[in-house]
Amino acid sequence: MTRPLADRLAPCGPVLDAKAAERAHEMIAKRVGEGMASVDLAWAALAPVFAASPYLAGLARRDGRRLPMILEGDPDRILAVILTAAEALAAEPDFETARRRLRELKADLHLLTALCDLGGVWGLDQVTGALTRFADASLKAALAQAVRQEVDRGALTHVGEGEDGPAPGLFCVAMGKHGAFELNYSSDIDFSIFYAPDRLPVAEGHEPQAVAVRIANHLGRVLQERTGDGYVFRIDLRLRPDPSSTPPAMPVDAAMDYYESVGQNWERAAHIKARVAAGDFAEGQAFLEGLQPFIWRRNLDFAAIADIHSIKRQIHAYKVDDRLTAKGADLKLGRGGIREIEFFVQTQQLILGGRQPDLRGPRTLDALAALAAAGHVTPEDAAWLTGAYRDLRALEHRAQMIADDQTHKLPESDAERKKVAALWGQDNLRSFDATVGKILKGVNLRYGRLFAGEEALSSRFGSLVFTGVEDDPETLATLKRMGFSSPERIAATIRSWHHGRIAATRTERGRELFTRLAPRLLDAANATGAPDPAFNRFADFFAGLSSGVQIQSLFLAQPRLFKLIVEVMAFAPRLASTLARRPTALDALLDPAFFGPIETPAVAPWDPADFEGAMDAARRLFRDQSFRIGVRVMSGSADARDIGRAFAELADLIIGGLAPAAQNEVERIGGAFPGEVAVVALGKAGSREMTAKSDLDLMTLYAADPRDMSSIKAWGAETFYGRFTQRLASALSAPTGEGTLYEVDLKLRPSGTKGPVAVSFAAFEDYYEREAETWELLALTRARVVWASSPAFKVRAEAAIEAALRRPRDAKKTAADVIEMRELMERERPGKGDWDLKLDPGGLVDIEFAAQFLQLAHAAQDGPLRQNTGEALAALRAAGLADDGALARLEAAWRLEQDLSQLIKVALEDGADVEAEPKAFRTLLARAGHVGQFKSLRPKLAKAKAEARAAYAAIVKASG
């Protein structure tokens, strides 16, 4: 004989607020009337509930019949009545009536379930079972109502019956706790909607997909839309394949293709609990049977097992003495929470279940018992985790019962947390908090022990969990702590990569490798101090890869190289852009000799007969080689002299390869010409002090008989070599489909912009003998012949340059001119601050002027002539042509400023505030400046500049 519920309820705990309980009693009495006898009979058990839970008190008083009906009947029979009534709503002809009644029945169920749970009548399995069975009944009724809407609009021909469901071919697969009959008190329901397009009874003129999507939308209206009567269940359709890019209802074939090609291990874990909950059961069961090989793999290699373990290892396992407290604890997702127990079970199920079918149970505690029975979990751990799971689920239910919130957290507030404690039978908050803390620590301890010693996939900042389809709160907090401005965007991007939306992660092996790489990427981005640009530029690069296995394997095997690449992403946008547009540029880093001496190819790898082809090939070469050099700058593995020479040798190679191509192109149009021509580099290119942003200062010299003409167009020498110069400048500077090369400046030629672009040999000699001003002679000290039409003409051009420099000149006048030029420059182009390494007093201009002046002043007496500033200063010291200390200080300042300039030019835009750059970049700059900390660099640089300025003045002004 069954007993009414009122006779079976026991008090769950203390009455936390006697006045609240008394108010609830009075209001219920007003609504219930004659049924108050059963309420009074059970009041000792009801008072603690209604004192702590405004939601449950509201359910009791809102409908006068509800509480007496529940108290006066057998709870199992009342549950059966509720479920039958819900299922019967499938046939309700009025849509709005069905929606209202489902909400009323949900209220009945909620009050029944809460009282049976809190009163000790039902255990955890009965509570979650009741909630889940009602979810199934509601889903079936809602699906029938949704289908009827489509029949009424003429999109479907009829409402189906029996095992085919209301829409033959369409079914709902329950996932997660819904699938395992483990729903919590205020849970949403996770399910996916699939359909077989050829089986849906679609009316003529309608598309199956559009109909299926509308059915999904109708389900939302029936179940989760809030009305005056509340809601039935929140629904979550995001466990379907790739939910951000697929419709809410998917064809079965498309879904199967997804799982077989890019399905992830967390999706395998999710499907452990999958079952058909509504719709065409036969079609749904066939679909799930087809997924079994995806879920349960008989053969797993080491990488696959490691990737399954990653489901756990993305969660940060804290030390036992770390604080895990009840205050604000996330009972589901937090450390020591329900998810850790579920992952503990599911990871082992995925690994072992392929060969041991007994381990495939969908329910967490059943699976845990099976693992213990098979010897995979110790009996002690299984028993402890079982008890902890039941306690955590009970606490979760009580936290939700207070206000019907979909929360999994214990309140931060002591007053609110006391309500949960009271519903859990505790009257002392300190004791409650200690008990909860002990549970959390015990779960986290056993969870961490499961994969002890394995590679962590979390961060020192916290958990990095990217499984599932929704943001993990702890992960978002971790990303925020790591400095990312939009944690949600970062998480969504990484999840999309896990879904195989880019080529690098489209294969299973690629996704397994990325699981390990992701936390390293985020840590490396954080370490740069500029995590957003580092991640964004890496994303551009990663998305451009045609395959990800080799590159990701390289990054995992060489963490220092990976750290360097992420630094490039953070601090060198041009290099990052190169890598994004041309990921094959990374191949250079695979060369074991990459960090050895910087070498430039000996010969340009293109055919000079193909002018446009040569231009494109030159840009590809430039991109790859400048990337290599730039990475060497970022790595600090080469000094400024080597870098400046490498950039210059690259320019020499490109000029040397494009000059013949330009000459061939001019000859193709105008005909052959019997003269000779040379290309002279000046400025940074001439002195081999180029940086990543240097332009090319060029001059072309030619020699020809004035009477000669080109064979087709009858061009004279000036026209022919003018066309040659223009073609060469265009080849070096014009953008093509492969990008750009250099800015070209021809203004340092005799007569500047006023004269012809190509300079005849005779005009060159005459100009530098009669007209050249001192500043032009200073510039000429850096002149270097980088290409000539013949070796003999190269020698002749070099001799002419040297002859122009070695002519006798008045040293005092030269010094005065230099002083005047520098003063004019300081007035018209003043330095922009301490980090203007070129124009600021004591910067590179002062050092270069001093070296160039001394060479001009002593050239007539066979003094040294060197294009490179550092080499010139060393040669001048060796020759004793100025105070040794002053020259030594100039040379030291030049090296420091060159070292810093190379890094700044690779990494920063012109005018950037070095002091405002991230700490990690300032650390790189300190390394380039040969000091331990950035704070030591500013005084070192200031001292070097002051000494250089004084040395410049001592050398130049003393001679003026």
Q: Which structural class best describes the helix and strand composition?
A: mainly alpha
Q: Helical amount among residues, as a percent range?
A: 55-70%
Distance between the termini: 121 Å
Largest sheet: 5 strands, mixed
| Helix run count | 40
Q: Report the portion of residues in β strands.
A: under 5%
Radius of gyration, in angstroms, nearest whole number = 40 Å
**Low-pLDDT segments:** 317-322
- The tally of beta strands, per DSSP, is 10
Shape: elongated
User: What is the averaged pLDDT score?
Assistant: 91
Topology, element by element:
Blueprint: H1 5-8, H2 18-32, H3 36-41, H4 43-52, H5 54-62, H6 66-72, H7 75-88, H8 95-118, H9 124-152, E1 170-174, H10 176-179, E2 189-195, H11 208-223, E3 235-236, E4 249-251, H12 252-262, H13 265-271, E5 275-279, H14 281-295, H15 302-313, H16 338-352, H17 364-373, H18 379-401, H19 414-423, H20 429-450, H21 473-481, H22 487-498, H23 508-528, H24 531-543, H25 549-557, H26 559-571, H27 573-581, H28 611-635, H29 640-670, E6 676-682, H30 683-687, E7 696-703, H31 717-733, E8 744-745, E9 758-760, H32 761-770, H33 774-780, E10 784-788, H34 791-805, H35 811-828, H36 844-859, H37 869-879, H38 884-907, H39 919-928, H40 934-956
Parallel strand pairs: 2-3, 2-4, 7-8, 7-9
Antiparallel strand pairs: 1-2, 1-5, 6-7, 6-10
List keywords for this structure.
elongated, five-stranded mixed sheet, mainly alpha, 960 residues, single chain
Question: What does the model show?
Answer:
The protein is mostly helical. Helix content is 58%, strand content 5%. Strands 1, 2, 3, 4 and 5 form a five-stranded mixed beta sheet that branches. Strands 6, 7, 8, 9 and 10 form a five-stranded mixed beta sheet that branches. The longest helix has 31 residues, at 640-670. Mean pLDDT is 91; it is low at 317-322.
